[in-house]
Write a structure and sequence with these properties.
With about 170 residues, this protein is an alpha/beta fold. It is about 40% helix and about 10% strand. Helix 3 crosses helix 4 (about 75-85). It is globular and about 40 Å long.
Length: about 170
C-alpha cells in the first residue's frame, strides 16, 4: 500500500510540475484544492488556511516539499514544514526546476527551504542538516520525472526513518 503523503509546493509557478509528480502514482498524495475552493479558503483568512493545511496533513506520514525557484521563504510552505516536523512526520525535499510546466518551460533551481529552520534541541543546527533534498541529475524533463518517479517512494520511507530517529 502506498504511503500517504502531503505535497507542499508554491502553487503559482509549480502546480503543473507538482501535478506530474502527484499523478505518478507511487505515493498517495493529498488531493489538490480546486482553484475555486482555494479562493474560498483564502478569503476566510489565515485561520481558515491553517485549518485546511492541518486537515490535509492529518493522517499523512510525510510531507514532500516540491522545491521550485520561488519555494524558499513562502509563508504557508514554511508553516507546512514546521507543522510536519513538530508533528513527528517525515519530511523530504525534491527539486522540480528541471520538470517542464504546462507551457513547456523549465526554471532555475531554488534555495533549500529547510535552511531557515533551527532545531529546538540545540538551536544551532538547521533542518537542512537532517532533511534530505533530492536533485534529479538530469536536465531533460522526461528523465528528471522518471528519476523522481523511480525514487520517490524510497525517499519517503527514508524521511520517515530519519524523523523517527530524531524525535524531540
Amino acid at each position: 500500500m502506498a504511503k500517504r503523503v502531503f505535497f507542499s509546493f508554491h502553487y503559482g509557478p509549480d502546480h503543473g510540475r507538482a501535478s506530474q509528480i502527484r499523478n505518478a502514482g507511487v505515493v498517495e498524495g493529498n488531493p489538490p484544492a480546486p482553484n475555486h475552493e482555494w479562493e474560498l479558503i483564502t478569503n476566510r483568512g489565515e485561520i481558515a488556511i491553517q485549518n485546511w493545511i492541518n486537515d490535509q496533513l492529518s493522517g499523512r506520514c510525510c510531507t514532500v516539499v516540491l522545491v521550485g525557484s520561488e519555494t524558499f521563504g513562502r509563508k504557508w510552505i514554511n508553516y507546512e514544514i514546521e507543522k510536519t516536523w513538530n508533528d513527528g512526520k517525515g519530511l523530504v525535499g525534491v527539486y522540480v526546476h528541471n520538470l517542464k510546466d504546462e507551457s513547456g518551460n523549465q526554471t532555475s533551481k531554488g534555495a533549500n527551504p529547510f535552511t531557515g529552520f533551527r532545531l529546538k534541541k540545540d538551536g544551532v543546527s538547521t533542518l537542512a542538516s537532517l532533511v534530505k533534498m533530492y536533485d534529479p541529475p538530469y536536465a531533460m524533463s522526461a528523465m528528471a520525472y522518471l528519476y523522481i518517479k523511480t525514487n520517490l517512494e524510497a525517499w519517503v520511507e527514508e524521511a520517515i526513518k530519519i524523523r523517527n530517529n530524531h524525535q524531540g
